[in-house]
Design goal:
The chain is mainly alpha-helical and about 280 residues long. The protein has eleven helices and four strands. The strands form two sheets. A two-stranded parallel sheet has the order 1-4. Strands 2-3 form a two-stranded antiparallel sheet. Helix 5 crosses helix 7, helix 5 packs across helix 9 and helix 7 runs antiparallel to helix 9. The longest helix has 26 residues.
Length: about 280
């Protein structure tokens, strides 16, 4: 039965070289998602009602990158391994060993959005709506990079599952390729939903609705995929079989529902008149 299982493709962890510098797939995912996301964000922010100028979106790209990196790293340290990093603060800087949290990165971007909006006198919710619309692009590419690296693999699966796979570091048992589940749900599916919603003037004039839709959509997709993803070995399962990823999604889902309700109840009538 094991011979029928899909073998894990032996990807080179380095996508390509620029001279002596090797560009890893994970770094490439960040680079491509930020560049393509920036291009899409320029067009989204220009839609009526205008959320930001081209120059402001250009400036925010750096803020977003810093929010992702700093928030993602600090979130991983505080949410997942505080017992290791707090006694070893120098290890915090060793990002080449991995260790990033989406939930921490999301908080980092939210803080960057708030500070940038205040500095540039932008409407925080309107600008956030356009930016969060393209976040699933980075999520999807990031999960694909996880798969290429053979990390964050899934829970044991039935050998009869046609796409069950033996991962190099996952032992001899067949497993769910949960990275691909997340790439399809948190990434592709959520991106399509967000772009379709953002194309509707009805959603754009209800400030906060798109941001809430993203938060709730991600929380649902991540919670679902966590049922197939092997929890981190240093945390394991929490009480009642929950995982840390699912617990962190609860406040995201609640915040998303609140933002969508707020947007629906408080449409911007002036923006609606010009939409």
């Amino acid at each position: 039965m094991t011979a029928l299982l899909l073998p894990f493709p032996q990807f080179d962890p380095i996508a390509f070289h620029i001279g002596p510098l090797g560009i890893h797939w994970y770094a490439l995912a960040y680079i491509v998602s930020i560049y393509v996301g920036w291009k899409i964000a320029v067009k989204l922010c220009a839609l009526s009602p205008v959320a930001a100028t081209r120059e402001q979106v250009d400036d925010f790209a750096f803020w977003a990158m810093m929010g992702i990196i700093l928030g993602g790293r600090l979130g991983y340290i505080l949410f997942y391994k505080p017992g290791f990093y707090l006694p070893h603060p120098l290890a915090i800087l060793q990002v080449w060993y991995g260790g990033m949290s989406f939930h921490g990165g999301a908080l980092g971007v939210i803080i960057a959005l708030a500070l940038f909006s205040r500095r540039n006198k932008l409407n925080f919710l309107s600008f956030s709506d356009r930016i969060t619309t393209i976040v699933p692009l980075g999520l999807g590419l990031g999960r694909c990079a996880n798969f290429v690296n053979g990390e964050l693999w899934g829970r044991p699966a039935s050998p009869d599952l046609p796409w069950a796979m033996i991962f190099p570091t996952g032992g001899p048992v067949p497993r769910h390729p949960s990275e691909l589940y997340e790439a399809l749900t948190e990434g592709l599916l959520l991106l399509v939903i967000m772009l379709v919603a953002a194309s509707r003037p009805w959603a754009r004039v209800r400030y906060g609705f798109l941001s809430g839709l993203f938060l709730f959509g991600y929380a649902v997709a991540r919670t679902f995929c966590e049922f197939f993803r092997e929890p981190d070995a240093f945390i394991g399962f929490l009480p009642f079989g929950f995982t840390m990823g699912q617990v962190l999604c609860i406040p995201m889902a609640l915040a998303g529902l609140w933002l969508m309700a707020f947007g629906i109840r408080h449409p911007r009538t002036a923006a609606l008149a010009h939409a």
